[in-house]
Amino acid sequence: MSDSGTGSWSLSSMGIRAKMTLTMILTMVVAVVVGVFGLWQMSDIAGHGKSIYQDALLPERDILTLRHHVSMVRYYSLSVATAGTEAAKQQHTESRTKEEQEVAKLLGSYKERNLTSEQRTSVEAFEKYWKDYQTQRLEADGLFAQKKMAEFEAYRNQKLVPTTQAFL
Q1: Cα–chain center distance at 106
Q2: Cα gap 110→130, rounded to integer Å
């Protein structure tokens, strides 16, 4: 049944050892091809994962942290206004200053990122409202210090609260 004189061969003419060796070689070639393709795809997926982390999760984390610090500025501002002693007032003022510095630091680091036009517009709007809030807060603090409670409440409700709501 062997046709060795014609120079052609067939799978049926091979011995069991040769068939097993051929099968193993083909299996290894397929495994290597699948492995290389898998590694190539994995590095591509890792790149997308890194991009999602940097472009979506980090900005989201920074925004949440920024909101926290802004809320703490508001808390300490109210605490300064209602402090019973000068020592408490001083402590709340120092805490508020630290929180304001954190807001400035976070804004700076966020703006250094490669932002989309939408993100840049949002940051610029936040900065505008943040500056407005700080100016208005100083005016409200002045009214409170002068014990002009009716004017303070009106100013707070008509200016300060809407500004805060605009950027939070």
Answers
A1: 11
A2: 15
